[in-house]
Structure formats: structure tokens, C-alpha cells
Specification:
By secondary structure, this protein is mainly alpha-helical. It has 5 helices and no strands. The termini are far apart.
Length: about 110
Amino acid sequence: MPRSVNHVASRARRKKILKFAKGYWGRRKNVWTVAKNAVEKAWLYAYRDRRNRKREFRALWIQRINAAARQHGMNYSQFINKVQKAGIALNRKVLADLAMNHPAAFEAIVQAIK
């Protein structure tokens, strides 16, 4: 009995990977083995960086809060400590947004915790 190979499924699988490789440079976009490696590596980076993005944004918010707090005579550590002791339930994302876009509101928080 002859060997049965499902060419329809394997071609569809390869086309799917090559579709993900669209826009890549050189052989990465049209040679199956190179494209497969490039797409799999891209997926690994995407998985890793979905987690790293959260760290990077938190670090950015902390830098912005620190810069704004220093304009009012305290550092980030002192500011966050006083905010928590005062019972102000604003997270770092909101505090950083206030520091950047609404300095008057941030100053009101500083006056409330002093």
C-alpha cells in the first residue's frame, strides 16, 4: 500500500508561517526553514517582552514621580511613604500621569501629605 502524505495540511501549515513572516527582510520572508526560525524567535521575543513591558512602564512611572516629587522638596521614597500613610489610594500610573499632565493636581497631593 502506498504511503499517504497529507500535502494539503502541510502546505497550509507552511503558508501560515510564511504569512506571519510577511514583511521580514531577505530569505526570512520566503524560505520555509529560515522563515520558521525567524517567526518562532519573534514569538519568543513577543512572549518575553509582554512581561518586560510591565517592568519598563513601572520604572518610567517611578522616574516621573521622582522628578516631580523632587521639585517639591522630597524624593520618591519619602513621597510614596507619605502617600501610603495618608491613605491616598492612587497607583504609580495615575501619580505619574498627574505629575506629567496635571502639575497642579500633583501639587495638591503633595500639600495634602505634608
